[in-house]
Amino acid sequence: MNRRRFTKNILIAGALGLTSYPIFKWVSINKNVSPDAFRPYANLIDELAETIIPRTDTPGAKDAKVGSFITKMLVSCTDNRTQNIFLQGLNDLEEYAHDKYNHSFLECSKTERLATLEHFEQKSTYRFNVLNKIENKFIGLPFILNLKRLTVQGYCTSQVGVTKGMAYELIPVHFQACIPLTPGQKSWATK
Question: Angle at which helices 110-124 and 143-156 pack, to 10 degrees?
Fold first, then answer.
């Protein structure tokens, strides 16, 4: 075999090796997802949402049934790519909890749960914002950011979240564009 052919084959093999992972990743995040794929993760999603918005003197995410909201939104209102990224994120989270703490996320303490979510949040973003925008455009929103977004959306649109978690007036009488909050006051749901 001559040197040119050998170099050409090495370059082709290297190019195929470099492009095979992105192609594999692209195919794996765009495959069809069964509507029942999220059912085994119902308790995990509830606990994740409760970790983000815990019960204090106001109701938490479990009280507002945010886990059910997240599942419905993922199944009914998102594309296959978002669903696959979310499922992969749930699997990665469970795997991380097993590797780090030797038990599942559901068995973790509050501090272990917070540390796990912080780890995934740090892992999901790059130092340069341009890279985050590129990844969000071509691959999709990372699992942890999507989880946080859906948790807040579900809580802030639930009856429990609006009436008990935030300050709520059924019929606001006066419109005031900017109202300063006093210390300890809940944010407004209707203003």
Answer: 120
